[in-house]
Design brief:
Layout: H1 8-21, H2 39-52
């Protein structure tokens, strides 16, 4: 898998797309990271797009 830089918005879009590709049913997404990486901000950004899904 190639490594490529992403903005936080692009990362959110990529994660939502991966969840959509996972198919129907329940999908859990875990966001973890060191506090300076602010994983809570990414998790919050995923809430609304995943709810729409």
């Amino acid at each position: 898998m190639p490594i490529r830089p992403l903005t936080p918005e692009a990362l959110t879009t990529e994660i939502v797309a991966a969840v959509e590709r996972a198919g129907r049913g329940h999908v859990r997404v875990l966001v973890d990271g060191a506090p300076p990486a602010r994983p809570d901000v990414l998790a919050d950004a995923l809430v609304d797009p995943l709810r729409v899904r």
